[in-house]
Each structure stands twice: as structure tokens, then as C-alpha cells.
Amino acid sequence: MEARGLVKRYGGRKALRGIDLVAEPGELVAVIGPNGAGKTTLLSILAGTVKPDAGEVHSPNGDVGWVPQQAALYRRLTVEENLLLFARLEKHAAPREAVEEMLDLTGLRERRADLVARLSGGNQQRINIAIGLLSRPVILLLDEPSVGLDPRQRARLWQFVSGLAGGGTTVIFSTHDIQEAERYGQRLLVLADGEALFDGSAQELRGAVRDETPEAAGTDFETAFVAFLQHRGH
Amino acid sequence: MRWLLLKDLQILRRSPLQAALLVAYPVLIALLIGFAISRDPGQPRVAFLNEIPQGARIAVGEAKLPSVGVDDRICGRVDCVDVEDRDEAIAKVRSGDVLAALILPANLIDRLNSLSTLNPETPEVEVIVNQEDPVKARVVDDRITSLLGQANLLVARQIAREAGRYLELTVDGGSFEVLGEKIQILGLRAGTAILREVRPTVPPRLRGELDRMIRFGSLVGDNLDVAAPLIDRLAQPIAVDKQSVSAPTPPLDVFAIAVAATLTLTFVTLLLVAGSLALEREENTFPRLVGGLVSRTSLLGEKVGLGMAVGLVVTLLMLAGVQLFVGLEWSRFGLWLVAILAGGAGLGAAGAALGATARDVRAVSLLAFMVSLPVALLSLVPSGAVGPTLYDAIRVLTALFPFKPALQAMTAALDPAGPGIGRPLLHLAILAIAYGAIARVALRRFASA
User: Fold this and answer.
1) How far apart are the C-alpha atoms of A191 and A176, rounded to whole Å?
2) Cα(B235)–Cα(B225) distance, rounded to whole angstroms?
3) Plot region of B389 (φ>0 → left; ψ -120 to 50 → alpha; else → beta)
């Protein structure tokens, strides 16, 4: 997936200021940054749900799986009905088989007949992600996927996502959690106020942070990262 | 699209309260409307043209009615708008400025006076109406009936007195003038006395008296012949020549059913489409759907289709329920379907436009009620019931919303004598396209707003 010069304005505010991004097959790219940095806007543009004011996006064959930040589910449908609906809308060749596969993946087989409204936030998020995976996309976009998940669920999620990337799926995810980005992201794109501050590996980011904020050298990575943002004027 | 439709029906099935409200609320509104249309309105505006010569007075027999102006009598009951001639009266009725026009012809008094002669003529007043809807037709009829009831009562009393005088003459005898010649009437009492007198013996010399009795008998018959039409006139001395400048209107009960059915269709379709579209935003599913699964236009089409389908079912159920009380023309079922589906398309598109502008289901439900209820009620205001400027404003406002054309289509579909269905269908098609375009534009900002 390749994006060049993406610009997005909401009224007088610039949410994205000329962002470039290239993601290779099987790559796990983490988009990190403070609130209002433009992470969700960037992923929405990559997913095709928001049109940029300038710039362009190229994806191999348009097959992009999109998992929004907030659970995009029908709460008055059951787990199974939600999965079946989206499998059908995806024009899946065997929608019921896809549903069974996702029920196994999410570990919610026993709750297949429960209304989504009765599920915990974490379980809703699992269904939310499963829907994004129904079409077996070559590019998967996850907007803060681990929000609301407990550590065990989070571990299962990243294990699954890493497995997808290992199989050649390009995964681009946003997160607030710098440690999560460092742990699972093969490449990190740092955004602040719609501007790309850094694009590289976690190791390279650590180096940049050390170079620009030597006073934060003895602190943990998250504190050093905040100092790095402040040093860049954000 | 069919899977989205299935999903929406599943959601509707899971919301029994919402489904019950969708049916119960329109029924409640229909009842309220029923009460509203059965209420007597206030003083209507009536164009009034008095062609009776000044100073003319009604004389029945030897009595003359007090010279109280007819203008005062009539204009005390209605809000009179003076007009110069018949053409102006017709123009005012046609434009809706007045509810009706009342014309008192120049020969009205002469004809009234003729009632006490041997050659009575029927006095007529002319009423011009624009019965564009049954409520208005009923208002006009009620007012005319009331006005004429008063006038007829006044004249009838005089005629009754005159008829009584004829009967008195027949019974007691006296003089009676016909074509300038005075005729002596013996009277039944006197005749009876003579008969009683001659009964024991009828010698030939009394044959002359008997001849008189025979002549009296024929005179009695002739006098009763004269009195009979006079007494007949007591029922309605003044007849009405009513002319309408509009097409015939359906009966009031059919119109009431059309109002109830259209209200049902309006609330079901509008609320369902608007709420269902807003739900996609509330559930955060809209971006996912339009992110490659369906187009925005298809989504709009699915929502409007859902509204049309559910609106059709609920409205038909309502009509089937009404059938228990009022006979409906089931042979026109095809036209019902056309009217309901066309109305559903217009209302569904309006609902989509509302749904695309609101953030959540509650807000859009409130908005739908706030918009549709007053517009529906305004659509029932007949011309002439309010001032011409206000009525023009109401007409423009109600033409911009699909309720009124949907009501017209429904009325035309239910009543074979009603107005044509083509024009309201065209109106609904235009509104459906216009609201669909508005909804489509509003959906562009739906995901990001």
C-alpha cells in the first residue's frame, strides 16, 4: 500500500499535512501519536471511508479490511447474525463457513446466539476485528484494536495479527500505547498535529529520541517519547 | 441490499416496543384527526352578493315582514365579503379566499311574495362553492343548511298563517277574491247546518239550496287545491341552486380513512427510514458499510425500500381493520398499492434526508415528529378557513412535504368519485427525487461529521 501527500482539512483545521506512507506485504506498521494527531483520519483515508483533500492512495487490488476504533456492530443482532450479515455483504463464497471460522478465532462460539449488546466491550471488539478479517484482506487496517481488551485477550489478538502478517497480510494499526507499538510494530509512523515526525523502526525511534532529548536518556521509553514530542513542538 | 433489508427487519423484530409504537401512535393521531374533522369550525368567510332592489319587502298574503336587512341577518352568521358581481364571487371562491359565495337574485322577493298567490314560484338563492376537500364541503353544507333553516323558518311562519286563513275561510265561510271578482264562501259549518235542516225532507223547492251545497263542495275542493302547495312550501320555501367550481369530493368517511391511512404511512415510513439510517451512524457501522461493501446510494435505496415495505404492510393492516366498520372498494386494491408505494417513496426519501442530517436515533425521531405532525395538520386546513396570505404560505409549505400529495393519492385511490391520482403521483415522484438527492448529499458528510 502506498499513500502520497495526504492532506485532510476539517473546516479551518488541518488534520493531515501531506503524509506519505508505504507498507510492504507482510509488514506490521504502527501509527502512533497523541490525541488529535490524525491517526484515525489517516486510517480512514487508507480504508476509503474518508476522501482526502489532496494526495492519493494506491492499494494492490483494493482489498482492504477495515476495523474502526469503535465497534461497528449491530447491537440488536446476535454475534452470529452480525458475522453472517457482513460475510454476505462481503460476497463471501461460503458465508456460513466464514462465520464458523471467525467464531473459532474469537473464541465466542458458545456466545454465538447472544445479542452483541450483551457482550463485554472486549468481546465486542473481538467481533469487530473478526468482521474486518472476514474477507481475508491483503491489507488490514486496525484503528486502536486493543482498546478495552484485557491483557490475555490483547495477547491473543496480537498473536493472531502477527500470524496474519506472517502469512503476507500488510497490517497497519494505530495505537496510543507506545510499548505496544514498539513490541508489535515492525515500523513506526509518528504523527502529531497531522504531521509525520518520524517513520522507521522502533530501534531507530529510540535512537532519534536519545539524540534529540539526551536529558530524558535515563527515563523509560514512554517518558522519553513524550520529551521527544515536546522537543518537536507538540 | 437484501441482506441489509433482512438485518433491518431482524432489528425491528428485536424492538417490539418500537414496532408497537409505530402502529399505536398513528392510530392515536388518526383518532385525534377524526375528532378534529368532526368539530364545527368558526365563522367562515363567504362572498356575498345582494341583487335585491333596495326597499323590497317580503309580503305573504296581507302581511309584510319587518324591513330588517337580509345582509344583517346573513352576515351575523358568517364573515361576509362584499363582491361587485357574480364573476368576482366565483373568482374569490376559486382562489380559496372565501369558503363559498351566496348570491341573492333580484327576483327573490317577488318569488317569495308569489307564494301567497295562486301562481307560486320557487324562490332560489345561488350558492357557489369550491369543494376541493370533503371537510370543506361539509363546512359549506352545514353553513348553508343553517342559514336557509333560519330564513325558511321566517317565511314558513307567514305562509302557515296565510294557509290558516284559507282553511278558516273554508270552514267558516266569507268572501274570496279571484281575478278581481268577489266570491262568497258559505263555509263548511253553514253548509252542514243547511244539510241538517233539509235532511228530513227534500221537496223539490229545496233543490236550489242543494245546488248551492254542490257548488260549495266544489269550491272547497278548489280552495284546498290552492292551500295544498302553500302548505307544501312550509317544508322549504326557499330552494338552493348549488354549483361547484371543483371536481366532486369523496364522502367524509372515505376522506377520514384516507387521512388516517396517510398518517399511518407517514409516521411508519418517516420514522423507520430516518431512524434506521441514523442507527447506522449510532452503531458506527456506516463507515464499514460504505467502505467497499455497499454504495451510499444503495444504502439509501435499501432504507427507502424498507420504509415502503413496512409502510405498505402497516397501512394495509389499518385499512383491513377499518373495513370492519366502513365498506371499502376492494376492487380498487391495485390503486391502493400504487398510492401507498408512491406515498412511501416520497415519505421514505424525506425520512432519509432527515436521518442523514441527525446524529442519533432519538434526535431524528424527535425531529421527524416535529416536522411531520404540524405539516400533516396544516395539510388539512381548507382554503377560506384562514386568510388568503396565510393560506398561500400553508399551500407552499405543505407542497414541499410529501404528506399532502400522499393524502391526495390515497383519497383518489379509495374513492372512485374522487379526484384523479396522476397529479399527486407526479408530485410524489418529484419530491422523492428531490429528497433523495438531499439525502445523498447529506450522506457525504455522514461518516466524518
Assistant:
1) 11
2) 17
3) alpha
* Calpha distance A172→B292 (Å, rounded): 18
Please, which residues have CB within 8 angstroms of residue B125's CB and are 6 or more apart in sequence? Answer: B102, B103, B104, B105, B108, B148, B238, B240, B241
- Residue B339 contacts residue B421 (beta carbons within 8 Å): yes
pLDDT of residue B449: 44
What's the length of chain B? Answer: 449
Q: How far is CA B285 from the centre of its chain?
A: 49
What is the CB-side half-sphere exposure of residue B137 using CA atoms within 13 A?
18
pLDDT value of residue B298: 92
Question: Per-residue pLDDT for B60 more than 70?
Answer: no
Return the residue in A85, A91, A135 with the most chain B beta carbons within 10 A, the one to mutate for interface testing. Answer: A85
**Which residue, chain included where needed, has cell 483533500?**
A53
Q: A124-155: per-residue pLDDT in tens?
A: 888 888 898 888 888 999 998 888 778 887 88
Domains of chain B: 2-39+249-444 (no CATH), 45-160 (3.40.1710.10), 170-227 (no CATH)
- At residue A29, what is the residue type? V
Alpha-carbon span A29 to A36, nearest angstrom: 19
Q: Is B12 near chain A, with CB under 8 Å? A: no
* Whole-model pTM over 0.90: no
DSSP per residue, B82-135: E-SSHHHHHHHHHHTSSSEEEEE-TTHHHHHHGGGSSS----EEEEEE--SSHH
Mean pLDDT, rounded, for A16-33 = 92
* CB B301, CB B379: distance < 8 Å: no
Of B11, B283, B287, the CB nearest to A49: B287
Residue in this structure with the C-alpha cell 446524529, named with its chain if needed: B359
Place of cell 294557509: B163
* Touching A: B residues 71-110, CB under 8 Å: none
Distance of alpha carbon B238 from alpha carbon A217, whole angstroms: 110
In one-letter notation, the amino acid at residue B319 is L
What the block records as the C-alpha cell of B311 is 409502510
Q: Does residue B35 register a pLDDT over 60?
A: no
Contact A49 B10 (CB under 8 A): no
CATH of A2-63+139-231 among 3.20.20.150, 3.40.50.300, 3.30.200.20, 3.30.70.790: 3.40.50.300
Q: In terms of Cα–Cα distance, which of B229, B230, B64 is closest to B159?
A: B230
Give B261-317 pLDDT, tens digit per residue.
998 899 889 999 999 998 888 888 888 888 778 889 999 999 999 999 999 998 998
| C-alpha cell, A149 | 481488551
* A95 pLDDT more than 90: yes
- CA distances, A205 to each of A77, A172, A186, B230, B312 (Å): 44, 17, 11, 115, 62
Contact yes or no for B176/B159 (Cβ under 8 A): no
Q: Which residue of A has its CA nearest to B12?
A: A76
B14 → chain A, closest CA residue: A76
Cβ–Cβ < 8 Å for A8, A41: yes
Q: How far is CA B131 from the centre of its chain?
A: 6
Q: How far apart are the first and last CA of chain B?
A: 25
Strand pairing report for B45-50 and B100-104: parallel
The H or E element containing residue B40 is none
| C-alpha torsion sign, points B8, B10, B14, B15 | positive
Per-residue pLDDT reduced to its tens digit, A179-222: 889 889 999 999 998 999 889 988 888 888 888 887 776 777 78
β-strands A54-58, B45-50 pairing: unpaired
- pLDDT at res. B73: 67
Domain ranges of chain A: 2-63+139-231, 73-136
What torsion, rounded to 10 degrees, do the Cα atoms B268, B377, B100, B81 define? -160
